[in-house]
Amino acid sequence: MAKITISRSVAGLRYPTLASIKGRSSTIRAEFIKSVIPEIIPNPMEIEEALAVLQQNEGSLCCSYCGDTPTEWDHFFSAVSNKMPTGYITEVYNLVPACGKCNQSKGATYWNDWIRGRANLSPTSRLSNGQLNITEEQLEVKIGLLKDFEEWGKAKITKLDFDSVSGHEFAEYFKSCEELIDKFADYEKTAIALKTKVEGTLRKRS
Ligand SMILES: [Zn+2]
Fold first, then answer.
1. CA neighbours closer than 13 Å in the CB half-sphere of residue 52
2. Ligand 1 is a single-atom ion; what residues have CB below 5 A from it?
3. Rounded to an integer, what distance in angstroms lies between the CA atom of residue 64 and that of residue 106?
4. 100 in the Ramachandran plot: left (φ > 0), alpha (ψ -120 to 50) or beta?
5. How far does the centroid of ligand 1 lie from the alpha carbon of residue 139, in Å?
6. What is the pTM of this model?
7. pLDDT of residue 160
8. 39: Cβ–Cβ under 8 A, 6 or more apart, which residues?
């Protein structure tokens, strides 16, 4: 289903967004998937070791991709792709400090394809637009460190096979998500009918 974004402007300002129950489908689906992805909380020594591979430490953190001030830990290998878990989880071997721009822009793309690609806000795109705060040479150094990180984690990183771990439970769980989303269309129809009824009682303005 195509994603419809309704944005309205009145006198040049963004007008309150039209509510849409169906419009929440992709968020709900994503939360269903993310809710089953395990996490292993790293201890301070593990964090230190991982950061050292990236030549960082807690006192000098930067986005591992573009060098900007980091705001979050990014899944180095995406935990979700094509609306399914990839098998990668939230753990120290799969997390790097990142800025919001890079995290958003990278999505589920393999880091080395994305970082050299032309996706909106990718480091290479920002470099060509003069929006990157590091030079091309410094970006190459970052890519080298990310390769080191990938190599470092290779033997230790978790890659689960969700189906073999959970049997049919996992498929059932996703089916229940789709059933829930199917109901959204009915709820939306009810909501629109109710709204129309309520609006009908409002005083007519001239
Ligand atoms: Zn960044």
1. 7
2. 63, 65-66, 68, 99, 102
3. 12
4. alpha
5. 11
6. 0.82
7. 93
8. 89, 90, 91
Q: Provide the residue ranges of all domains of the chain, joining segments of one domain with +.
A: 23-37+162-193, 39-159
Q: What pLDDT was estimated at residue 57?
A: 96
Relative orientation angle of helices 169-200 and 25-34, to the nearest 10 degrees = 150
- For residue 71, the CA-to-ligand 1 centroid distance in Å is 9
Distance 26 CA to ligand 1 centre (A): 25
Nearest to 146 by CA among 62, 71, 65, 69: 65
CA of 150 to the centre of ligand 1 (A): 17
The encoded tokens of residue 32 equal: 């269903």
What's the burial of 119, exposed, middle or buried (CB within 10 Å: 0-12/13-18/19+)? Answer: middle
Beta bridge partners of 159: 88
Ligand 1 centroid distance, CA of 122 (Å)? 8
Amino acid identity for residue 124 in this structure:
T
Ligand 1 center to 45 CA (angstroms): 24
**Ligand 1 mean position to 128 CA, how many Å?**
15
* Element containing residue 188 per DSSP (H, E): helix 169-200
CA of 49 to the centre of ligand 1 (A): 21
Instruction: Please tell me the predicted confidence (pLDDT) of residue 72.
Output: 97
